[in-house]
Amino acid sequence: MTEFLIANMAPLMFASLVVFLLCGFPVAFSLAANGILFGLIGIELGLLHGALFQALPERIFGIMANDTLLAVPFFTFMGLILERSGMAEDLLDTIGQLFGPVRGGLAFAVVFVGALLAATTGVVAASVISMGLISLPIMLRYGYDHRLATGVIAASGTLAQIVPPSLVLIVMADQLGRSVGDMYQGALLPGLILTGMYLGYVGLVAIFRPALAPAMPLEARTLREDSGASGLRSLAWLFAIAVAGAWLFANRVYSADAPRDELVVVSSMVGIGIAFVIAILNRILGLGLLSRMAERITFVLIPPLGLIFLVLGTIFIGVATPTEGGAMGASGALLMALLRARLSLPLLKQAMDSTTKLSCFVIFILIGSSVFSLTFRGVDGDLWVEHLMTSLPGGQTGFLIAVNILVFILAFFLDYFELAFIIVPLLAPVADKLGIDLIWFGVLLAVNMQTSFLHPPFGFALFFLRSVASEKVKTASIYWGAVPFVIIQLLAVGLIIMFPGLVSHDGGHVKSGVQQELNLDQLLHGGGGGGAAGPDDHGASDLMRQLQGN
């Protein structure tokens, strides 16, 4: 029996964790309990050294001192302030007026607003619930098909997984031992492509099944000129001037050697600034150059969009770390809410309470995963996972297929934070050994987890929407409405695998403030925040052997 336990400690430990999770125990405590239990068993069997547990306090303090994870509460607070200050309602109303005359206009507006809300909140639950409360009643009032309306809302809310700045990408970067900026750069184009595919599907439905996505009635289009004109001409001119300014800046002013993603973000920020300055001058000086539509869209859309691009731009060009960018975003959100007279003490209390809960949730899971991983690596769990995954037929292809199937299934039952802290640290070293770029691998996993959020009947986004949808909307409609978007998500996963160049980044960066080289002190004290082994972590297993009693 003793020989069996020693030989199979790693798979027994992993199986025990699965049993704990299936029994409904909290993830953080399941991880920590398994780590401590099997650590004690390993010490009793002589497999591990007693010094293993002496490292736990310092390792926990090392996690708490990880500056990268400070970005989580900052970005969460930023998104909650923008969401609860009425930004979503204003955006949906404004963009809905813009696309109102077009069939499927409200659905287009939901996708655009969902992408912006996802970029600001970074939390799927907040995005889906907000859009469900705001947009679903309006879409149903104007005769939208229940399945189309619910599918668009659920899918656009899940964009919080992949559209930077995303909390998922921050955690993923930390666990992969890579720069958050590189992760943002890598996810930018896939996020935009996925958003475009959503819009394309809505457009096809509006063309071939117009009864499912009608245009807004004329009486609902209130944002018009006194003459009855739509005011789109001045908006088109403003847009053209902003694009021209951004193009001139990109080609004549900014560095020609800059990465494509950085160039797009910084140039977009310049174009947005030009449009905003023109709108302000027009209002202050009373020039009358812009229509009501153009002014409304400028003053409602540009501030949150500009804040997002400002945060991303400073991170991309290296002016600010993700933590500093998150702090700037939170300050900008407070300023925007204050200028719009939407900032109040109850709103601040609600945002701070939700931010604290989410941050504690993340940190507790990370602490639990660190306790688990310390024991798991001590019993050669990393080698067991490596041998299991590298023995799969097909090399990189077989590994990617198996991993995507595994993550897809596990995402039915586990939150993305739980997956990032449990599964990613086990798979990342194997992916690195197989020569897979970890930024690309992280983006692929994020899109995969996003797909699982929509898969009926287990998708979390569907349950979030069900909780706020009216009784008139049947659960079956929510499930069937998500199916086309699940197919779109799977196509996106396939595109990323077929065209790795879609995930672009500078490369060669490690996460801020963390040495890539692993030494004994780092291993024992957890100074890196519990991330996965990077390309220079090959000595980790050898160092763990020093803690074993063999």
Structural features:
550 residues; mainly alpha; 25 helices; 0% strand; disordered C terminus
What can you tell me about this protein's structure?
This protein is an all-alpha fold and 550 residues long. 70% of the residues lie in helices and 0% in strands. The chain contains 25 helices and no strands. It has helices at 2-7, 9-22, 27-44, 56-64, 71-84, 87-98, 105-121, 124-141, 146-157, 167-176, 180-208, 232-253, 260-285, 292-316, 322-339, 345-378, 381-390, 395-410, 416-422, 424-433, 438-452, 460-468, 475-498, 520-525, 540-545. α9 (146-157) packs across α22 (460-468). The radius of gyration is 25 Å and the shape is globular. The protein starts with a helix and ends in a 5-residue tail after the last helix.
Biggest β-sheet, characterized?
A: none
Strand content: under 5%
Flag low-confidence runs. 508-550
Structural class: mainly alpha
Q: Mean of the pLDDT scores? A: 79
Secondary-structure element order, N to C:
HHHHHHHHHHHHHHHHHHHHHHHHH
Count of beta strands: 0
Radius of gyration: 25 Å
Choose one word for the global shape.
Answer: globular
